[in-house]
């Protein structure tokens, strides 16, 4: 039998395995695609950097079974291929992975082809193939400098936190400082300080109801006392309220801007309550599926080809389509003008667009909705991106606006504005407008200078100067505004300060305030006694006592290293390295010298602890702030630790203004159950019963005899996670309806929707045989695609 030879001649190496199938499909049988599974080499701390020799790094292969195996697979494929094409992501990290691949497999850096693309489509891939370049060492050096800077700051400053605040009992619990992580924490800290210093006060917001339609007109003044509002309402009884209405004015509402990473994360947070991390996960799936362009970008432009396709779509979809195309659409093409000139409101300290990416957009504007087989979150995200992209290329919406005014007592006035759409422009996409507005015409038909009697005037208590905690979306916006990090790091920075226990995403309980509202009707004044809650907040980022202590320590001794201007300067210098303007190790030397000098200034400092009394001391323990209690038991000193209440004023604590009973959280000791946190998206509830401690999670209950009769307040989530893993039969959750589970004969696929009376069970081991991948860790898109093809579910 003749030997069969492969026709594969070109091997393309990408980062994610989810791209491989589509790339091979689009490029045909002459191409084989394989994934690196991200980075393959790492720096093992400061010992890997030769500081005296221009910060020369020594890399080591990441010790991970999957990566080691993949390296062997790549090596085999390289031997079979006529040429290797490196196609990792078009950013600094992707360029560095290409460089590492070349070093590991002895590929010629000056000759090996390097291609980039921002969308996984046949057209984009073929364009990339015919216009390769080589590895850009300036970009590689910028990534290397960033990595070394992060190590210098993190590995030198973090031990100062251990020395002066809390020694780590394990790597996962160690306090840490970071070049961008700490400025992100600082934003939350300063927000907390603003809220504490806010000058809040009660004011009266007054609405007058006029005309037979009871139109609500707003008074242009807030009253600060009940006497003022009484005087106003009494004067309004006999006052002649004179009506006027302006001539219609044409106003224009600009279309939304194209999505960058940060603006998409903010919009998804505000509209869908998705975290930045969740948004990036969904977009990664959409990108790898070929539905959208690369999602880590700060560009606000589109390719020329895409602009042409959008224009054709608009003309074909809407009557008189030419009118709906933006007059400035040609300026949105990548490279036509400097992008910063497009946004006149852009702050001076915002970073320049750093990579040659487009804005986030659909790869095919004609695909209005995703297939039904896609997840609901993916469909919602795609619709948001599709709508915003189309709208950004369209004409402004125009309206006619009128403003009606009614004079009021004591030289004040009531106002009400109404709009009538003239031309829908970009708003035609979502159709969230009305062609009719009866009030618009009604207001113009009332005779000018007529006296209009009030129907009712209502004055309601509200709070002025009430500050809000930041949402994750707001933090992302501030990171971008201050030049902290880059699009690829925003989500991880938001996550990191929460993982460290410095910040928690929580609801804020408002304050119930007694309010006396006032109402004037038929010349009678009524006082309405009510209670109203102010300050309620949902899903906000709240700094924790640990975060305050860490931030105040770093502000005191490392303020220059973590101020916003310095952080932005470092990011700008990294951009300059990527452009070949400055030498990468000069920046590392400058930073290293500054860090060493600041650490030298710390040599006479002592550990941060606040003495409460002779027996109790506030300190940072393994899991955060605690009270260290020293008691004399039968002549022996016994030490135990007690949890503290939330919202402790650390300044009062430092000044010795608390008694121990005022700050110890006795509820944790008294409670028979306590919500420890979340594990795999489910609440973990710790309970103390007649026979000891047990936990419940996702409907499963497990007794933990190993914890003995320990006080409930001395147990942390980390102590019990291993028991949760032991008690679970779920290997991997693919969706709310589909999981891989352990069975007596091995793993299997469990499928049950809410409409199904009984679940269905499928063989999952066939995936390994057919796809040569591990279903426990492989990309979920690949796995779900295989399941869909195999079992039609």
From TrEMBL:
Enzyme class (EC, first level): isomerase
A Pfam family of this chain: Toprim
GO biological process: DNA topological change
CDD domains xref list: TOP1Ac
The keyword Protein biosynthesis is annotated on this UniProt entry: no
SMART domains in the cross-refs: TOP1Ac, TOP1Bc, TOPRIM
UniProt keywords, alphabetically: DNA-binding, Isomerase, Topoisomerase
Domain annotation Topo IA-type catalytic: ranges: 136-599
EC number: 5.6.2.1
Gene3D superfamilies: 3.40.50.140, Topoisomerase I, domain 2, Topoisomerase I, domain 3, Topoisomerase I, domain 4
Catalytic activity: ATP-independent breakage of single-stranded DNA, followed by passage and rejoining
GO MF, one example: DNA binding
PROSITE patterns the record matches: TOPO_IA_1, TOPO_IA_2, TOPRIM
Domain Toprim: 9-120
Membrane found in the keyword field: no
The family this protein is said to belong to: Belongs to the type IA topoisomerase family.
PANTHER family attached to this UniProt entry: DNA TOPOISOMERASE, DNA TOPOISOMERASE, TYPE IA, CORE
Protein name per Swiss-Prot or TrEMBL: DNA topoisomerase
Organism, as annotated: viral metagenome
């Amino acid at each position: 039998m003749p030997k069969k030879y492969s026709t594969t001649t070109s091997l393309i190496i990408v980062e994610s395995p989810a791209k491989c199938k589509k790339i091979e499909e689009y490029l045909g049988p002459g191409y084989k695609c394989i994934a690196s599974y991200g980075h393959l080499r790492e720096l093992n701390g400061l010992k890997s950097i030769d500081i005296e020799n221009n910060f020369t790094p020594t890399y080591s292969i990441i010790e991970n079974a999957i990566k080691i195996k993949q390296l062997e697979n790549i090596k085999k494929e390289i031997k079979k291929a006529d040429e290797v094409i490196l196609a990792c992501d078009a950013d600094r990290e992707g360029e560095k992975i290409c460089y590492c691949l070349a070093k590991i497999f002895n590929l010629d850096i000056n000759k090996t082809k390097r291609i980039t693309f921002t969308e996984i489509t046949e057209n984009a891939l073929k364009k990339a193939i015919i216009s390769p370049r080589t590895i850009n060492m300036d970009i590689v050096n910028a990534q290397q400098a960033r990595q070394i800077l992060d190590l210098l700051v993190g590995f030198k400053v973090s031990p100062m936190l251990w020395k002066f605040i809390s020694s780590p009992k394990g790597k996962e619990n160690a306090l840490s400082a970071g070049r961008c992580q700490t400025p992100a924490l600082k934003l939350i800290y300063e927000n907390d300080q603003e809220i504490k210093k806010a000058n809040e006060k009660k004011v009266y917001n007054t609405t007058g109801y006029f005309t037979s339609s009871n139109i609500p007109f707003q008074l242009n003044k807030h009253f600060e006392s009940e006497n003022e509002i009484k005087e106003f309402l009494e004067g309004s009884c006999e006052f002649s309220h004179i009506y006027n209405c302006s001539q219609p004015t044409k106003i224009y509402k600009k279309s939304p801007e194209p999505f960058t990473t940060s603006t998409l994360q903010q919009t998804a947070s505000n509209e869908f309550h998705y975290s930045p991390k969740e948004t990036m996960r969904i977009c990664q799936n959409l990108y790898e599926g070929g539905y959208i362009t690369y999602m880590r970008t700060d560009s606000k432009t589109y390719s020329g080809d895409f602009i042409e396709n959008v224009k054709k779509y608009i003309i074909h979809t809407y009557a008189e389509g030419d009118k709906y195309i933006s007059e400035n659409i040609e300026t949105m093409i990548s490279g036509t003008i400097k992008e910063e000139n497009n946004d006149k409101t852009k702050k001076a300290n915002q970073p320049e667009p750093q990579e040659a990416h487009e804005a986030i957009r659909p790869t095919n504007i004609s695909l209005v909705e995703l297939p039904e087989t896609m997840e609901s979150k993916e469909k919602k995200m795609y619709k948001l991106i599709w709508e915003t992209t189309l709208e950004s290329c369209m004409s402004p919406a125009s309206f006619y606006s009128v403003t009606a005014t009614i004079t009021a007592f004591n030289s004040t006035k009531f106002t009400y504005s109404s709009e009538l759409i003239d031309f829908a422009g970009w708003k035609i996409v979502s159709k969230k407008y009305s062609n009719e507005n009866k009030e618009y015409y009604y207001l113009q038909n009332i005779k000018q200078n007529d006296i209009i009697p009030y129907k009712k005037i209502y004055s309601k208590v509200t709070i002025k100067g009430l500050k809000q905690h930041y949402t994750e979306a707001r933090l992302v916006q501030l990171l971008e505004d201050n030049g902290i990090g880059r699009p690829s790091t925003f989500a991880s920075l938001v996550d990191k300060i929460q993982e460290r226990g410095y910040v928690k995403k929580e609801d804020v309980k408002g304050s119930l305030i007694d309010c006396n509202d006032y109402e004037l009707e038929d010349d009678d004044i009524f006082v309405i006694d009510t209670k109203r809650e102010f300050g309620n907040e949902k899903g906000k980022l709240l700094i924790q006592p640990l975060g305050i202590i860490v931030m105040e320590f770093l502000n005191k001794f490392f303020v220059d290293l973590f101020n916003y201007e310095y952080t932005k300067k470092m990011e700008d210098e990294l951009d300059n390295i990527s452009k070949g303007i400055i030498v990468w190790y000069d920046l590392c030397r400058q930073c290293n010298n500054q860090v060493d000098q600041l650490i030298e200034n710390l040599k006479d400092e002592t550990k941060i602890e606040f003495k409460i009394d002779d027996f109790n001391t506030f300190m940072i323990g393994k899991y955060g702030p605690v009270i260290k209690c020293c008691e004399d038991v039968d002549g022996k000193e016994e030490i135990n630790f007690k949890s503290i209440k939330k919202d402790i004023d650390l300044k009062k604590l430092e000044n010795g203004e608390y008694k121990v009973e005022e700050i110890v959280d006795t509820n944790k000791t008294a409670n028979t159950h306590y919500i420890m946190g979340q594990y795999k998206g489910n609440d973990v509830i710790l309970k103390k019963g007649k026979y000891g401690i047990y936990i419940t999670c996702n409907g499963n209950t497990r007794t933990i005899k190993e914890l003995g009769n320990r006080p409930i307040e001395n147990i942390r989530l980390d102590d019990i996670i291993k028991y949760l893993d032991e008690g679970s039969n779920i290997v991997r959750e693919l969706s709310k309806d589909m999981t891989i589970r352990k069975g007596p004969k091995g793993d299997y696929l469990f499928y049950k929707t809410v409409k199904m009376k009984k679940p269905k069970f499928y063989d999952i081991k066939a995936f390994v045989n057919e796809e040569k991948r591990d279903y426990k860790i492989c990309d979920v898109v690949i796995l779900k695609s295989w399941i869909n093809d195999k079992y039609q579910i």
